[in-house]
From TrEMBL:
NCBIfam families: SP. Belongs to the major facilitator superfamily. Sugar transporter (TC 2.A.1.1) family. It is found in: Membrane. GO terms for molecular function: carbohydrate transmembrane transporter activity; symporter activity. Keywords: Membrane, Sugar transport, Symport, Transmembrane, Transmembrane helix, Transport. The chain crosses the membrane at residues 20-42, 62-81, 93-114, 120-137, 149-167, 179-202, 320-342, 362-382, 403-424, 436-455. Residues 26-458 form the Major facilitator superfamily (MFS) profile domain. The keyword Transport applies. It is a multi-pass membrane protein. This is Major facilitator superfamily (MFS) profile domain-containing protein. Its main location: membrane. The gene is LOC102709014. GO terms for cellular component: membrane. The keyword RNA-binding does not apply.
Length: 496
């Protein structure tokens, strides 16, 4: 017995290191979908300048072209959960990549505005799929000890993709007018192909495998990604419990219980039609957080940075696009140091400083505009950017988490679409400086909302969220009792 007890710890060290590396690699591959997503968003920032000149379209047409992607993405987001349950997480990533590929080619070869909009629609479906499937796969494949770190990868990857889009703008800006913006958009097709090929080196999600009754395959994947054999067994037991499979049921293939359609109607009723006071407060907190994240004007910064810098007196495409690349660098670097506390004051202050309408004749005003926009990008990437998804995925009880998160994402995308499709018109009406003063005012209101409606969740378990939101609703807390800590993020989108 003594020999066994001394050997077991030694045996558990190496698999833990190897498994973390394996899960890390799988997460990197899955995050490629988010990189392609970010590229598609960021590249339009500079490409739109040349599209307007080449196709001779109006500012209204430009802002619709820029923002409509968010509205289109809703269809992909709500379809992604069904697709992921049907064909699996891995091949849903391939599905998203195919939409990106087709959308990029349509936009690349577009000869008119209508074809360009068709390409945006196809790419928008891919965006919706990527927004849903990348976080789901990452959360379901990550070992418990590394899940918090690995689940930040999709957000980091989106920002990296945005930066690559900005770099693409800068790299191809010197091409002839009719060719430059087409190459910028067409380049997005290449990583989509690479993503689709890499998927075949990724394991399938153990939760999906069990949903399909493939118990032996689910065990095999869990043994590769879990820190220890004990954790693999515990996670398998938790997945069985969540799926309604008796824990003592074993074998290579099991028969899964059928889902009842009435369960979805009950969830809708509990969340939207007749919510309890606690659920109502949670829904208000989640939707408010998603709304203010976008209403603070982040998409105006991401999509229209060259126009903002141009209004500040920066001339020449190289200078405009180069300075825009600095915004991408700031966002990417600071999302890596994202904290668990929203920096509300910094966000509003940065916007107010940008709102100071710069005078092109005053050098310090140009420097202030650039510095303020960089500060805004940094504050957003540390606070509102990564924290919105983290916070809203924690606060919903398990039984309504999928639908609750989906409702929050829908609010987020609609608000983002409205903001990005109105920036140029708003700027014409109140100037670019006035627009950012307005966003600063919204951020100030957001600070008040966060302070009064968002209780601190740090250190609280999922089971304690009911008490955090001011209720002793034991049914609500019991709804989370079967959830594996941290694993619920992998469940929250798949049935939406």
């Amino acid at each position: 017995m003594a020999l066994v007890s001394t050997e077991l710890p030694a045996m558990s060290v190496e698999p833990k290191k190897k498994n973390v590396k394996y899960a890390f690699t799988c997460t990197i591959l899955a995050s490629m979908a988010s990189i392609v997503l970010g590229y598609d968003i960021g590249v339009m920032s500079g490409a739109s300048l040349y599209i307007k000149k080449d196709l001779k379209i109006s500012d209204v047409q430009v802002e619709i072209l820029m923002g409509i992607l968010n509205i289109y993405s809703l269809a992909g987001s709500f379809a992604a959960g069904r697709t992921a349950d049907w064909i699996g997480r891995r091949f849903t990533v391939v599905f998203a990549a195919s939409f990106f590929f087709a959308g990029a080619l349509l936009m690349c070869f577009a000869g008119d505005y209508a074809t360009l909009m068709a390409g945006r629609f196809v790419a928008g479906i891919g965006v919706g799929y990527a927004l849903m499937i990348a976080p789901v796969y990452t959360a379901e494949i990550s070992p418990a000890t590394s899940r918090g770190f690995l689940t930040t990868f999709p957000e980091v990857s989106i920002n990296l993709g945005i930066l690559l889009g900005y770099v693409s703008n800068y790299a191809f800006a010197r091409l002839p007018l009719y060719l430059g913006w087409r190459v910028m958009l067409g380049v997005g097709a290449a990583p989509s192909v690479l993503l689709a090929l890499m998927v075949f080196g990724m394991p399938e999600s153990p939760r999906w495998l069990l949903m399909k009754g493939r118990l032996a395959d689910a065990k095999s994947v869990l043994e590769k990604i879990a820190d220890t054999p004990q954790e693999a067994s515990e996670r398998l037991a938790d997945i069985k419990a969540a799926a309604g499979v008796p824990n003592d049921l074993d074998g290579d293939v099991v028969t899964m219980p059928k889902k009842r359609g009435s369960e979805e109607l009950r969830v809708w009723r509990e969340l939207v039609v007749s919510p309890t006071p606690a659920i109502r407060r949670i829904l208000l907190a989640a939707d408010g957080l998603h709304f203010f994240q976008q209403a603070s004007g982040v998409d105006s910064v991401v999509l229209y940075s060259p126009r903002v810098f141009k209004s500040a007196g920066i001339t020449g495409d190289d200078q405009l696009l180069g300075t825009t690349c600095a915004v991408g660098v700031a966002k990417t670097l600071f999302v890596l140091v994202a904290a668990f506390l929203l920096d509300r004051v910094g966000l509003a202050t940065g916007l107010a400083a940008v709102g100071r309408s710069p005078d092109a004749e005053v050098p310090w005003a140009v420097s202030l505009c650039v510095a303020s926009l960089l500060a805004y990008a940094a504050f957003f990437s540390v606070g509102l950017g990564p924290m919105t998804g983290v916070y809203t995925s924690e606060i919903f009880p398990l039984r309504v988490r999928a639908l609750g998160f989906a409702v929050g994402v829908a609010c987020n995308r609609v608000t983002s679409g409205v903001i990005s499709m109105t920036f140029l018109s708003l700027s014409d009406a109140v100037t670019i400086g006035g627009s950012f003063f307005l966003y600063a005012a919204v951020s100030a209101l957001a600070w008040v909302f966060f302070f009064t409606h968002l209780p601190e969740t740090r250190g609280q378990t999922l089971e304690e969220m009911g008490k955090v939101f001011g209720t002793n609703d034991t049914a609500m807390e019991a709804g989370d009792a079967s959830a594996e800590p941290g694993y619920s993020e992998g469940l929250l989108l798949t049935s939406a």
